[in-house]
Design a protein that fits this description.
This protein is mostly helical. It has one domain: MazG-like (Helix Hairpins), CATH 1.10.287.1080. The chain is 67% helix and 0% strand. It is built from five helices and no strands. α2 packs across α4 and α3 packs antiparallel against α4. It is globular, with a radius of gyration of 17 Å.
């Protein structure tokens, strides 16, 4: 869990990226053939999410965690999300807002727990 102190320390960092600024910079590294738009970043996202899961699995198995390594994998996940969103015509801030709106609605409806997209 991230503490309030962690968030405050992060906010004091000299270089702070907003979602859209990060996305614009991340797209510069998208060197895949454009005929694979959407497909390439979708596959990369699944692969990198699997790497995050693998590191967490090893944490459970070994009892030790390399948070820095997990952070690097999360950065890769973020890159693929940024590029995929761009390929679909969305800014990261739009994706984030839609997600928070959805979660807010679920919380207000008392459906934050459970499963299914339409709750």
């Amino acid at each position: 869990m991230i503490s309030k102190d962690d968030i405050e320390a992060f906010m004091k960092m000299e270089e702070f990226y907003d979602f859209d600024d990060y996305q614009k910079k991340a797209i510069a590294y998208a060197i895949y053939d454009r005929k694979y738009r959407v497909v390439y970043p979708s596959l990369g996202l699944a692969s990198e999410a699997g790497e995050v899961a693998d590191k967490v699995k090893k944490w459970i198995r070994d009892g030790t965690v390399d948070k820095a390594a997990i952070s690097k994998e999360l950065g890769d996940v973020l890159w693929y999300i940024a590029v995929l969103a761009n390929d679909l015509g969305f800014s990261l801030s739009e994706v984030a807002k839609v997600n928070l709106d959805k979660l807010d609605k679920r919380q207000k409806n008392g459906t934050i727990k459970g499963s299914g997209d339409n709750r």
